[in-house]
Amino acid sequence: MSIVVVGSVALDSVRTPYGNANQVLGGSASYFSLAARHFAGVHLVAVVGEDFSAGEEAILRDAGVDLGGLERRPGRTFRWGGEYGPDLADRETLFTELNVFGDFHPRLSAAAAAASTVFLANIHPSLQHEVLDQIETPRLTAVDTMNLWIESEREAVLELLRRVDLVLLSDEEARLLSGEIQLPKAGRKILEMGAAQLIVKKGENGALFFSPRERFFCPAYPLEEVVDPTGAGDAFAGGLLGYLDRENGQPQPPLRAAMICGAALASFSVEGFSPRRLVEVSRHEIAERIEAIRGLTQVPRVPLWQTGPA
Ligand code: AMP
User: 241 and 140 in contact (C-beta within 8 Å)?
Assistant: First the structure.
């Protein structure tokens, strides 16, 4: 059982009200892998440039992520810069430099192609399609994307949404894709557009699951201090798909439990800059936080009025 992820491995420069991080390890595939590896083996497929240091690579390798699919090419590593407003909810992208991703074509090793779960983390949709073309018979495929690609590559994104089992979007992306403001309506419309299952991530307000048969809400862990929200969505996906991959013999995928695992990993991710907390967090801490989130959602029956004859 293992997961293959394609996405960005980046050098991020981030400003939040709590400080700055300059050219630190980031990228959708990095955050995802460092979260998912707590539950399952992860093969990472991406490209970096000559400026990607041995130290950054060691963060991923020492965490047990299979880097057989991480190519090193002449040129500069993907770079992204972002700045958060005072309440950490609004983010402005300051720059996106594709660099070595500009002419990258993912090639999956035999082990990666045979993985039981595939995650297409945020990257150009044509690369996400190229990965789906190479996989054998995974049990679960999931895709994430972002505003940039919904606006510039809408058709490719719509086609992806129909090719995979599960679509993950932020609330802003779900609104942009569907043209609807209210998320329940946006969710229904995205299912009608061909998504089999959808998770809409609402940051500190939790996440909503939509399928033709089921709706589910999973809260976010109410942290008192958030340092850097970057990568929370990818860490959520890592916890979610890591747990689903680990449990994938079950007749019914334990989706609700998996969403709680996603929320737990996302909450650790935002406690520090870069994926630092995902690297150092222990199994014990993860298990404790999963229980804390579960506890937040447990409500006894609410007896009200008796119905029927008095
Ligand atoms: P999130 O906060 O979940 O949106 O993820 C942020 C991460 O996505 C950062 O570490 C960035 O390096 C990465 N990222 C930002 N823009 C892009 C893009 N256009 N393609 C791929 N990865 C990106």
Answer: yes
Instruction: Give the pLDDT confidence of 270-285 residue by residue, as tens digits.
Output: 999 999 999 999 999 9
Residue nearest to atom 13 of ligand 1 (CA): 27
Tokens of 105: 């074509």
What's the rounded Cα separation, in Å, for the pair 228 and 105?
Answer: 31
Atom of ligand 1 nearest to the CA of 149: 19
**Residue nearest to ligand 1 atom 15, measured at CA:** 80
Is 269 close to ligand 1, i.e. is its CB under 6 Å away? no
* Cα separation, 198 vs 142, whole angstroms: 9
What distance in Å separates the CA atoms of residue 309 and residue 82, rounded to the nearest whole number? 63
Give the span between the Cα atoms of 169 and 200, in whole angstroms: 5
And the tokens for 306?
Answer: 């008796």
Best residue among 124, 143, 146, 236 to mutate for probing ligand 1, ranked by most atoms within 8 Å of CB: 146
| Angle ∠(95,100,104) on CA atoms, nearest 5 | 120
The predicted-structure confidence for 168-215, as pLDDT tens digits, reads as follows: 999 999 999 999 999 999 999 999 999 999 999 999 999 999 999 999
* Whole-Å CA distances, 139 to 35, 46, 244, 271: 20, 22, 10, 32
